[in-house]
Amino acid sequence: MADDFHKPVKLPGRVFEGFHGGQDPAVALRVAHETAHALISRVHADPDPAVIDRLVGYTDRHGIDAIAELWSQAAARTLPGALWRIYLVRVLIRQNPDETSYLYQRGADATPTIDPIVAGAQEPTGPTEIVELADQILRGAFQGDFADALDRAAAFCRVEAAGAAALADSVDAVDSERATELTTRASRFVQTGDELGACARLWRAESLD
Predict the structure, then answer these.
(1) Cis amide leading into 124 (omega within 30)
(2) Considering the domain boundaries, does residue 19 fall inside one?
(3) Would residue 12 count as lying in a domain?
(4) Which domain of life is it from (predicted)?
């Protein structure tokens, strides 16, 4: 990614692209996997509520780039890749809960799938409810079934994608640039949802490295 980020950071629309660091890639990937496995094992073995609170709010205090340095370069269908995407989704929600909740509600109204039920946001879904959903999903990764948290995050991404695509269709005739931006966002959410869903299946098969 061309942009240089410093904490606290306001992410641009192309947040699903990677961060680039200067360290040896092999060392970085080894550290990513080791820290991800150590974190999940430690918290699941002893789900101390105070520890989970600190993990959920980590990016609020330290910025998303602190997490990115650990996990953003890992492959999508890996444990560090999954954790990175869950954290990133939470940051995106909390940065702009008004727009995120609007797109989510629009997507929930438009989609014929059970994704809104799987995601589990309260209805109607406003800014407060969408922020609460973000925290629930991340908290679930540490104290519940990790695959369920991944499935909820994946469902959220698909609902958000449906909302962005629906809005793109609505504004295309009057604002083609905005429509293109929304279509691109929808595509990235679809991709991220697919990746998180794949991670959930791998976790259940005990194959998420």
Answers:
(1) yes
(2) no
(3) no
(4) Bacteria
Domain assignment present for residue 16? The answer is no
Radius of gyration of the chain (CA): 17
- Give 63's DSSP letter: -
In a domain, 7, yes or no: no
User: How many domains would you assign to the chain?
Assistant: 1
For residues 138, 33, 6, 22, the Cα torsion angle rounded to the nearest 10 degrees is -170
Cβ 150 vs Cβ 114: under 8 Å: no
Q: Please give the model's pTM, rounded to 2 decimal places.
A: 0.87
What is residue 41's three-state secondary structure? helix
**Chain segment 26-53, per-residue pLDDT in tens:** 888 999 999 999 999 999 999 999 999 9
Q: What secondary structure letter does DSSP report for 9?
A: -
Range of the domain at 35: 25-204
- DSSP designation for 150: H
